Amino acid sequence: MKVSQFFDNTLLNKYNTSGPRYTSYPTALEFHDDFTHDDFINAIENSQNRELSLYVHIPFCHTLCYYCGCNKVITRHRDKADTYLEYLAQEIALQAPLFKDYTVKQLHWGGGTPSFLTHSQITKLVSLLKEKFNFSDNVEMSIEIDPREIEMGLAEHLYSLGFNRLSLGVQDLDLKVQQAINRVQSTEFIGDFIAHAKAVGFKSINIDLIYGLPHQTLDNFTKTLVKAHEWDVERISLFSYAHLPSRFAAQRKLRDEWLPNVEEKFALMKLAIETLCDLGYDFIGMDHFAKPNDELAIAQNNGSLHRNFQGYTTGGDCDLLGLGVSSISSIGNSFSQNIKDLKEYYQAITEKQHALIKGVSLSKDDILRGEVIQELMCNLYLDKHMINEKYRINFDEYFAEDLPLLTSFIDDGLLENNENYIKVAQKARLLIRIICMSFDAYMKKHINQQRFSRVI
Protein backbone atom coordinates (compact mmCIF):
# COMPACT_ATOMS: atom_id res chain seq x y z
CA MET A 1 0.00 0.00 0.00
CA LYS A 2 1.42 3.36 -1.06
CA VAL A 3 0.70 5.73 1.80
CA SER A 4 1.32 8.78 -0.36
CA GLN A 5 -1.87 8.06 -2.33
CA PHE A 6 -4.03 9.15 0.61
CA PHE A 7 -2.87 12.75 0.47
CA ASP A 8 -4.02 14.60 -2.62
CA ASN A 9 -4.39 18.08 -1.13
CA THR A 10 -6.70 19.31 -3.85
CA LEU A 11 -9.15 16.44 -3.39
CA LEU A 12 -9.01 16.44 0.40
CA ASN A 13 -9.67 20.17 0.53
CA LYS A 14 -12.49 19.83 -2.00
CA TYR A 15 -14.31 17.20 0.05
CA ASN A 16 -13.30 18.20 3.60
CA THR A 17 -16.81 18.86 4.81
CA SER A 18 -18.77 17.63 7.84
CA GLY A 19 -20.36 14.22 7.96
CA PRO A 20 -21.39 11.32 10.23
CA ARG A 21 -18.85 8.78 11.41
CA TYR A 22 -21.44 6.07 10.63
CA THR A 23 -21.02 4.04 13.78
CA SER A 24 -24.68 3.29 13.05
CA TYR A 25 -27.19 3.82 10.29
CA PRO A 26 -29.48 5.59 10.83
CA THR A 27 -27.26 7.79 13.00
CA ALA A 28 -28.19 8.70 16.58
CA LEU A 29 -29.82 11.90 15.29
CA GLU A 30 -32.70 9.75 14.08
CA PHE A 31 -33.39 8.16 17.47
CA HIS A 32 -36.75 9.31 18.85
CA ASP A 33 -38.76 8.96 22.05
CA ASP A 34 -41.63 7.14 20.32
CA PHE A 35 -39.43 4.05 20.52
CA THR A 36 -40.56 2.27 23.69
CA HIS A 37 -39.32 -0.48 25.95
CA ASP A 38 -41.93 -2.75 24.37
CA ASP A 39 -40.26 -2.06 21.01
CA PHE A 40 -36.93 -3.02 22.60
CA ILE A 41 -38.34 -6.32 23.87
CA ASN A 42 -39.91 -6.98 20.49
CA ALA A 43 -36.52 -6.41 18.84
CA ILE A 44 -34.95 -9.04 21.11
CA GLU A 45 -37.68 -11.58 20.40
CA ASN A 46 -37.42 -11.08 16.66
CA SER A 47 -33.64 -10.93 16.41
CA GLN A 48 -32.08 -13.76 14.42
CA ASN A 49 -28.98 -13.48 16.59
CA ARG A 50 -28.19 -15.27 19.83
CA GLU A 51 -24.67 -13.97 20.38
CA LEU A 52 -24.21 -10.84 22.46
CA SER A 53 -21.69 -8.07 22.95
CA LEU A 54 -22.03 -6.16 26.23
CA TYR A 55 -21.04 -2.52 26.62
CA VAL A 56 -20.91 -1.06 30.14
CA HIS A 57 -20.63 2.71 30.57
CA ILE A 58 -18.78 4.01 33.63
CA PRO A 59 -19.29 7.81 33.51
CA PHE A 60 -16.86 9.00 36.18
CA CYS A 61 -13.57 10.86 35.68
CA HIS A 62 -11.26 12.33 38.30
CA THR A 63 -10.56 15.47 36.27
CA LEU A 64 -11.96 17.23 33.22
CA CYS A 65 -10.05 16.94 29.95
CA TYR A 66 -10.89 20.10 28.05
CA TYR A 67 -11.09 18.46 24.63
CA CYS A 68 -13.56 15.75 25.68
CA GLY A 69 -17.09 15.50 24.34
CA CYS A 70 -17.99 12.22 26.06
CA ASN A 71 -20.79 11.78 28.57
CA LYS A 72 -18.98 11.93 31.92
CA VAL A 73 -19.27 13.00 35.56
CA ILE A 74 -16.26 14.76 37.07
CA THR A 75 -15.74 13.83 40.72
CA ARG A 76 -13.11 12.62 43.15
CA HIS A 77 -15.70 11.04 45.43
CA ARG A 78 -15.54 7.29 44.87
CA ASP A 79 -18.70 6.76 46.91
CA LYS A 80 -20.62 8.14 43.93
CA ALA A 81 -19.48 5.07 42.05
CA ASP A 82 -20.97 2.87 44.79
CA THR A 83 -24.35 4.51 44.23
CA TYR A 84 -24.02 4.16 40.47
CA LEU A 85 -23.08 0.48 40.73
CA GLU A 86 -26.17 -0.16 42.85
CA TYR A 87 -28.44 1.15 40.11
CA LEU A 88 -26.36 -0.48 37.39
CA ALA A 89 -26.81 -3.79 39.23
CA GLN A 90 -30.56 -3.23 39.15
CA GLU A 91 -30.46 -2.57 35.40
CA ILE A 92 -28.37 -5.70 34.85
CA ALA A 93 -30.83 -7.78 36.89
CA LEU A 94 -33.72 -6.37 34.84
CA GLN A 95 -32.09 -6.79 31.44
CA ALA A 96 -30.32 -10.14 31.80
CA PRO A 97 -33.48 -12.32 31.81
CA LEU A 98 -34.39 -10.87 28.41
CA PHE A 99 -31.13 -12.32 27.05
CA LYS A 100 -31.18 -15.73 28.72
CA ASP A 101 -30.88 -17.44 25.33
CA TYR A 102 -27.82 -15.39 24.34
CA THR A 103 -24.11 -16.15 24.77
CA VAL A 104 -21.84 -13.20 25.55
CA LYS A 105 -18.89 -13.16 23.14
CA GLN A 106 -17.56 -9.68 23.95
CA LEU A 107 -17.53 -7.34 26.94
CA HIS A 108 -16.28 -3.76 26.78
CA TRP A 109 -16.17 -1.14 29.53
CA GLY A 110 -16.00 2.47 28.40
CA GLY A 111 -16.61 5.90 29.80
CA GLY A 112 -15.78 8.21 31.35
CA THR A 113 -13.01 6.26 32.99
CA PRO A 114 -13.75 2.64 33.98
CA SER A 115 -10.45 2.56 35.88
CA PHE A 116 -12.04 5.14 38.22
CA LEU A 117 -13.47 2.10 40.01
CA THR A 118 -11.59 0.44 42.87
CA HIS A 119 -10.38 -3.14 42.62
CA SER A 120 -13.27 -4.35 44.75
CA GLN A 121 -15.82 -2.42 42.69
CA ILE A 122 -14.40 -3.88 39.46
CA THR A 123 -14.51 -7.39 40.93
CA LYS A 124 -18.10 -6.94 42.09
CA LEU A 125 -19.28 -5.74 38.69
CA VAL A 126 -17.50 -8.47 36.73
CA SER A 127 -18.89 -11.12 39.09
CA LEU A 128 -22.40 -9.76 38.69
CA LEU A 129 -22.19 -9.72 34.90
CA LYS A 130 -20.89 -13.28 34.79
CA GLU A 131 -23.59 -14.39 37.23
CA LYS A 132 -26.46 -12.86 35.25
CA PHE A 133 -25.34 -13.48 31.66
CA ASN A 134 -24.08 -16.59 29.86
CA PHE A 135 -20.43 -15.88 29.03
CA SER A 136 -18.56 -17.78 26.36
CA ASP A 137 -15.45 -19.63 27.52
CA ASN A 138 -13.35 -17.58 25.09
CA VAL A 139 -15.05 -14.22 25.69
CA GLU A 140 -13.14 -11.10 24.63
CA MET A 141 -13.05 -8.65 27.57
CA SER A 142 -11.70 -5.13 27.13
CA ILE A 143 -11.58 -2.03 29.29
CA GLU A 144 -10.61 1.62 28.81
CA ILE A 145 -7.99 2.99 31.21
CA ASP A 146 -6.80 6.46 32.21
CA PRO A 147 -3.09 5.98 32.98
CA ARG A 148 -2.99 8.99 35.33
CA GLU A 149 -4.95 7.45 38.19
CA ILE A 150 -3.90 3.81 38.34
CA GLU A 151 -1.31 1.62 40.02
CA MET A 152 0.82 -1.04 38.36
CA GLY A 153 -1.11 -3.82 40.12
CA LEU A 154 -4.28 -3.00 38.19
CA ALA A 155 -2.99 -5.11 35.30
CA GLU A 156 -2.82 -8.28 37.42
CA HIS A 157 -6.23 -7.61 38.90
CA LEU A 158 -7.94 -7.12 35.55
CA TYR A 159 -6.24 -10.13 34.01
CA SER A 160 -7.28 -12.34 36.94
CA LEU A 161 -10.92 -11.38 36.28
CA GLY A 162 -10.73 -12.36 32.62
CA PHE A 163 -9.92 -9.09 30.88
CA ASN A 164 -7.62 -9.75 27.93
CA ARG A 165 -7.60 -6.39 26.10
CA LEU A 166 -6.67 -2.94 27.36
CA SER A 167 -7.18 0.49 25.81
CA LEU A 168 -5.24 3.43 27.25
CA GLY A 169 -6.21 7.04 26.66
CA VAL A 170 -2.88 8.69 25.81
CA GLN A 171 -3.86 11.42 23.28
CA ASP A 172 -0.47 13.21 23.26
CA LEU A 173 2.81 12.99 25.19
CA ASP A 174 4.00 16.59 24.88
CA LEU A 175 3.83 18.48 28.20
CA LYS A 176 2.68 21.79 26.69
CA VAL A 177 -0.15 20.04 24.87
CA GLN A 178 -1.09 18.12 28.02
CA GLN A 179 -1.17 21.27 30.11
CA ALA A 180 -3.42 23.01 27.60
CA ILE A 181 -5.95 20.17 27.59
CA ASN A 182 -5.67 19.60 31.37
CA ARG A 183 -4.31 16.07 31.01
CA VAL A 184 -0.76 15.90 32.38
CA GLN A 185 0.54 12.33 32.62
CA SER A 186 3.79 10.42 32.97
CA THR A 187 5.23 9.00 29.75
CA GLU A 188 7.52 6.76 31.76
CA PHE A 189 4.66 5.28 33.78
CA ILE A 190 2.58 4.61 30.67
CA GLY A 191 5.46 2.72 29.09
CA ASP A 192 6.13 0.77 32.27
CA PHE A 193 2.44 -0.12 32.66
CA ILE A 194 2.14 -1.35 29.07
CA ALA A 195 5.27 -3.50 29.48
CA HIS A 196 3.94 -4.83 32.79
CA ALA A 197 0.52 -5.63 31.30
CA LYS A 198 2.19 -7.60 28.51
CA ALA A 199 4.27 -9.50 31.06
CA VAL A 200 1.10 -10.28 33.03
CA GLY A 201 -0.46 -11.84 29.95
CA PHE A 202 -2.39 -9.20 27.99
CA LYS A 203 -2.12 -10.02 24.29
CA SER A 204 -3.71 -6.89 22.88
CA ILE A 205 -3.20 -3.29 23.99
CA ASN A 206 -4.61 -0.23 22.23
CA ILE A 207 -3.77 3.42 22.76
CA ASP A 208 -5.85 6.40 21.69
CA LEU A 209 -4.15 9.38 20.05
CA ILE A 210 -5.68 12.68 18.91
CA TYR A 211 -4.40 15.09 16.27
CA GLY A 212 -5.46 18.72 16.07
CA LEU A 213 -4.97 19.50 19.78
CA PRO A 214 -3.61 22.86 21.05
CA HIS A 215 0.12 23.44 20.50
CA GLN A 216 0.64 20.24 18.53
CA THR A 217 3.48 20.49 16.01
CA LEU A 218 4.97 18.04 13.57
CA ASP A 219 8.01 17.74 15.81
CA ASN A 220 6.31 17.04 19.10
CA PHE A 221 3.65 14.76 17.56
CA THR A 222 6.38 12.73 15.86
CA LYS A 223 7.82 12.01 19.29
CA THR A 224 4.43 10.76 20.47
CA LEU A 225 4.09 8.45 17.45
CA VAL A 226 7.61 7.04 17.80
CA LYS A 227 7.07 6.40 21.50
CA ALA A 228 3.86 4.52 20.74
CA HIS A 229 5.86 2.26 18.43
CA GLU A 230 8.50 1.73 21.11
CA TRP A 231 5.76 0.57 23.46
CA ASP A 232 4.94 -2.14 20.89
CA VAL A 233 1.17 -1.77 21.21
CA GLU A 234 -1.00 -3.92 18.96
CA ARG A 235 -3.50 -1.22 18.02
CA ILE A 236 -3.61 2.56 17.76
CA SER A 237 -6.77 4.63 17.35
CA LEU A 238 -6.11 8.00 15.73
CA PHE A 239 -8.87 10.56 16.11
CA SER A 240 -9.36 14.05 14.79
CA TYR A 241 -10.06 16.64 17.48
CA ALA A 242 -13.47 18.18 16.76
CA HIS A 243 -13.56 21.71 18.19
CA LEU A 244 -17.24 22.34 18.96
CA PRO A 245 -17.22 24.81 21.89
CA SER A 246 -20.88 25.68 21.32
CA ARG A 247 -21.77 22.07 22.22
CA PHE A 248 -19.06 21.24 24.78
CA ALA A 249 -18.46 23.94 27.39
CA ALA A 250 -15.05 22.65 28.45
CA GLN A 251 -13.70 23.26 24.94
CA ARG A 252 -14.19 27.00 25.49
CA LYS A 253 -11.06 26.85 27.62
CA LEU A 254 -9.05 26.08 24.48
CA ARG A 255 -8.25 29.29 22.65
CA ASP A 256 -8.64 29.28 18.90
CA GLU A 257 -5.14 30.64 18.42
CA TRP A 258 -3.69 27.60 20.22
CA LEU A 259 -5.21 25.20 17.67
CA PRO A 260 -3.53 24.11 14.44
CA ASN A 261 -5.08 25.74 11.38
CA VAL A 262 -6.58 23.61 8.60
CA GLU A 263 -3.27 23.14 6.79
CA GLU A 264 -1.38 22.35 9.99
CA LYS A 265 -4.01 19.85 11.12
CA PHE A 266 -3.91 18.16 7.74
CA ALA A 267 -0.11 17.93 8.03
CA LEU A 268 -0.46 16.31 11.48
CA MET A 269 -2.86 13.71 10.13
CA LYS A 270 -0.59 13.02 7.17
CA LEU A 271 2.41 12.69 9.48
CA ALA A 272 0.59 10.22 11.72
CA ILE A 273 -0.61 7.97 8.91
CA GLU A 274 2.73 7.95 7.12
CA THR A 275 4.70 7.36 10.32
CA LEU A 276 2.52 4.54 11.63
CA CYS A 277 2.42 2.77 8.25
CA ASP A 278 6.19 3.14 7.90
CA LEU A 279 6.54 1.62 11.37
CA GLY A 280 4.73 -1.49 10.20
CA TYR A 281 1.09 -0.93 11.20
CA ASP A 282 -1.75 -1.72 8.82
CA PHE A 283 -4.14 1.19 8.19
CA ILE A 284 -7.59 -0.03 9.30
CA GLY A 285 -10.61 1.77 7.89
CA MET A 286 -10.18 5.51 8.25
CA ASP A 287 -8.82 5.97 11.78
CA HIS A 288 -7.41 2.73 13.26
CA PHE A 289 -4.02 1.04 12.96
CA ALA A 290 -3.09 -2.51 13.86
CA LYS A 291 -0.19 -4.90 13.57
CA PRO A 292 -0.56 -7.15 10.51
CA ASN A 293 -1.22 -10.22 12.70
CA ASP A 294 -3.87 -8.45 14.81
CA GLU A 295 -7.49 -9.59 14.50
CA LEU A 296 -8.54 -6.17 13.14
CA ALA A 297 -6.01 -6.37 10.32
CA ILE A 298 -7.01 -9.96 9.56
CA ALA A 299 -10.69 -8.97 9.53
CA GLN A 300 -10.02 -6.13 7.10
CA ASN A 301 -8.06 -8.43 4.81
CA ASN A 302 -10.78 -11.10 4.70
CA GLY A 303 -13.70 -8.67 4.45
CA SER A 304 -15.22 -9.32 7.88
CA LEU A 305 -14.40 -5.97 9.49
CA HIS A 306 -17.35 -4.33 11.24
CA ARG A 307 -18.13 -0.90 12.64
CA ASN A 308 -20.25 -0.02 15.66
CA PHE A 309 -20.44 2.58 18.43
CA GLN A 310 -16.94 1.66 19.65
CA GLY A 311 -15.44 2.09 16.18
CA TYR A 312 -13.98 -0.70 14.03
CA THR A 313 -14.41 -4.14 15.53
CA THR A 314 -14.39 -7.84 14.78
CA GLY A 315 -17.70 -8.47 16.56
CA GLY A 316 -20.08 -7.74 13.73
CA ASP A 317 -22.18 -10.87 14.22
CA CYS A 318 -23.27 -9.99 17.77
CA ASP A 319 -26.25 -8.05 19.02
CA LEU A 320 -25.04 -5.23 21.28
CA LEU A 321 -26.54 -4.45 24.69
CA GLY A 322 -25.54 -1.18 26.31
CA LEU A 323 -25.74 -0.95 30.10
CA GLY A 324 -25.45 2.20 32.18
CA VAL A 325 -26.14 5.86 31.66
CA SER A 326 -26.14 7.06 27.99
CA SER A 327 -25.18 3.63 26.59
CA ILE A 328 -26.43 2.55 23.17
CA SER A 329 -27.79 -0.85 22.13
CA SER A 330 -28.11 -2.49 18.73
CA ILE A 331 -30.55 -5.37 19.01
CA GLY A 332 -31.99 -7.08 15.96
CA ASN A 333 -33.38 -4.42 13.68
CA SER A 334 -33.24 -1.61 16.21
CA PHE A 335 -31.03 0.94 17.92
CA SER A 336 -31.77 2.41 21.33
CA GLN A 337 -30.13 4.59 23.95
CA ASN A 338 -30.31 5.01 27.71
CA ILE A 339 -30.92 8.29 29.52
CA LYS A 340 -27.85 10.56 29.57
CA ASP A 341 -28.42 12.36 32.89
CA LEU A 342 -27.27 10.44 35.98
CA LYS A 343 -30.09 11.45 38.34
CA GLU A 344 -32.71 10.78 35.68
CA TYR A 345 -31.09 7.39 35.03
CA TYR A 346 -31.46 6.50 38.71
CA GLN A 347 -35.07 7.64 38.72
CA ALA A 348 -35.94 5.70 35.60
CA ILE A 349 -34.43 2.44 36.92
CA THR A 350 -36.51 2.83 40.09
CA GLU A 351 -39.78 3.96 38.56
CA LYS A 352 -39.84 2.41 35.06
CA GLN A 353 -37.60 -0.62 35.59
CA HIS A 354 -35.49 0.39 32.60
CA ALA A 355 -33.45 3.40 31.45
CA LEU A 356 -34.31 3.47 27.75
CA ILE A 357 -35.22 6.95 26.53
CA LYS A 358 -35.12 6.81 22.73
CA GLY A 359 -34.39 4.60 19.77
CA VAL A 360 -35.44 3.61 16.29
CA SER A 361 -36.90 0.52 14.67
CA LEU A 362 -35.22 -0.06 11.34
CA SER A 363 -37.24 -0.16 8.15
CA LYS A 364 -36.26 -2.47 5.30
CA ASP A 365 -34.74 0.56 3.59
CA ASP A 366 -32.72 1.40 6.72
CA ILE A 367 -31.35 -2.14 6.91
CA LEU A 368 -30.42 -2.18 3.23
CA ARG A 369 -28.77 1.24 3.28
CA GLY A 370 -27.04 0.38 6.55
CA GLU A 371 -25.41 -2.66 4.97
CA VAL A 372 -24.33 -0.66 1.91
CA ILE A 373 -22.72 1.98 4.14
CA GLN A 374 -21.16 -0.68 6.40
CA GLU A 375 -19.57 -2.46 3.42
CA LEU A 376 -18.11 0.75 2.07
CA MET A 377 -16.92 2.01 5.46
CA CYS A 378 -15.20 -1.27 6.30
CA ASN A 379 -14.14 -2.79 2.99
CA LEU A 380 -14.14 0.11 0.49
CA TYR A 381 -16.00 -2.28 -1.76
CA LEU A 382 -19.60 -3.26 -2.41
CA ASP A 383 -20.68 -6.38 -4.30
CA LYS A 384 -23.96 -5.39 -5.99
CA HIS A 385 -24.85 -9.01 -6.80
CA MET A 386 -24.62 -9.91 -3.10
CA ILE A 387 -26.97 -7.04 -2.22
CA ASN A 388 -29.35 -7.96 -5.06
CA GLU A 389 -29.61 -11.58 -3.94
CA LYS A 390 -29.91 -10.78 -0.25
CA TYR A 391 -32.56 -8.08 -0.59
CA ARG A 392 -34.16 -9.19 -3.87
CA ILE A 393 -33.65 -5.86 -5.59
CA ASN A 394 -31.92 -4.46 -8.63
CA PHE A 395 -29.27 -2.27 -7.05
CA ASP A 396 -28.99 0.32 -9.79
CA GLU A 397 -32.76 0.69 -10.02
CA TYR A 398 -33.29 0.85 -6.26
CA PHE A 399 -30.61 3.51 -5.81
CA ALA A 400 -31.37 5.37 -9.04
CA GLU A 401 -31.76 8.69 -7.21
CA ASP A 402 -28.58 8.17 -5.14
CA LEU A 403 -26.06 6.93 -7.67
CA PRO A 404 -25.81 10.27 -9.53
CA LEU A 405 -24.38 11.69 -6.28
CA LEU A 406 -21.29 9.56 -6.93
CA THR A 407 -20.54 11.33 -10.21
CA SER A 408 -18.15 13.86 -8.70
CA PHE A 409 -16.18 11.11 -6.95
CA ILE A 410 -16.02 9.09 -10.17
CA ASP A 411 -14.84 12.11 -12.15
CA ASP A 412 -12.08 12.69 -9.58
CA GLY A 413 -10.93 9.06 -9.78
CA LEU A 414 -12.05 8.29 -6.21
CA LEU A 415 -14.29 5.36 -6.99
CA GLU A 416 -15.45 3.01 -9.73
CA ASN A 417 -19.12 2.20 -10.23
CA ASN A 418 -20.24 -0.49 -12.70
CA GLU A 419 -23.02 -3.05 -12.92
CA ASN A 420 -21.17 -5.48 -10.66
CA TYR A 421 -19.64 -3.44 -7.87
CA ILE A 422 -18.70 -0.12 -6.33
CA LYS A 423 -15.00 0.07 -5.53
CA VAL A 424 -13.53 2.97 -3.57
CA ALA A 425 -9.95 3.90 -4.47
CA GLN A 426 -7.37 3.76 -1.70
CA LYS A 427 -6.71 7.47 -2.18
CA ALA A 428 -10.34 8.09 -1.14
CA ARG A 429 -10.02 6.20 2.15
CA LEU A 430 -9.98 9.41 4.22
CA LEU A 431 -13.11 10.60 2.41
CA ILE A 432 -15.18 7.46 2.86
CA ARG A 433 -17.63 9.20 5.22
CA ILE A 434 -18.46 11.74 2.52
CA ILE A 435 -18.91 9.01 -0.10
CA CYS A 436 -21.26 7.08 2.21
CA MET A 437 -23.41 10.17 2.67
CA SER A 438 -24.57 9.58 -0.92
CA PHE A 439 -26.60 6.59 0.34
CA ASP A 440 -27.91 8.30 3.51
CA ALA A 441 -31.65 8.92 3.07
CA TYR A 442 -31.74 11.19 6.13
CA MET A 443 -28.91 13.48 5.09
CA LYS A 444 -31.01 16.05 3.25
CA LYS A 445 -32.57 17.39 6.45
CA HIS A 446 -29.13 17.73 8.12
CA ILE A 447 -27.16 19.06 5.19
CA ASN A 448 -27.14 22.66 6.41
CA GLN A 449 -26.77 21.84 10.09
CA GLN A 450 -23.43 21.71 11.91
CA ARG A 451 -24.27 18.43 13.64
CA PHE A 452 -21.21 16.46 12.56
CA SER A 453 -17.45 16.83 12.74
CA ARG A 454 -15.30 17.53 9.70
CA VAL A 455 -13.69 14.57 7.93
CA ILE A 456 -10.13 15.87 8.33
From TrEMBL:
Q: Which reaction does it catalyse?
A: coproporphyrinogen III + 2 S-adenosyl-L-methionine = protoporphyrinogen IX + 2 5'-deoxyadenosine + 2 L-methionine + 2 CO2
Q: In which pathway does it act?
A: Porphyrin-containing compound metabolism; protoporphyrin-IX biosynthesis; protoporphyrinogen-IX from coproporphyrinogen-III (AdoMet route): step 1/1
**InterPro entries xref list:** Aldolase_TIM (IPR013785), Coprogen_oxidase_HemN (IPR004558), Coproporphyrinogen-III_oxidase (IPR034505), Elp3/MiaA/NifB-like_rSAM (IPR006638), HemN_C (IPR010723), rSAM (IPR007197), rSAM_sf (IPR058240)
Write down the Pfam families for this protein, in alphabetical order. HemN_C (PF06969), Radical_SAM (PF04055)
MF terms per GO, please? 4 iron, 4 sulfur cluster binding; coproporphyrinogen dehydrogenase activity; coproporphyrinogen oxidase activity; metal ion binding
Name the coenzymes or cofactors required: [4Fe-4S] cluster
The residues the record assigns to binding S-adenosyl-L-methionine 1 are: Y55, G111, E144, I328
Record keywords: 4Fe-4S included? Answer: yes
One cellular component GO annotation, for this chain's record? cytoplasm
The record, for NCBIfam families, names:
hemN
Q: Which family does it belong to?
A: Belongs to the anaerobic coproporphyrinogen-III oxidase family.
Stated name of the protein: Coproporphyrinogen-III oxidase
The organism of origin for this protein? Colwellia ponticola
Q: Which lineage is the organism of this entry classified under, starting from the top rank?
A: Bacteria, Pseudomonadati, Pseudomonadota, Gammaproteobacteria, Alteromonadales
As recorded in Swiss-Prot or TrEMBL, the protein's gene is named hemN
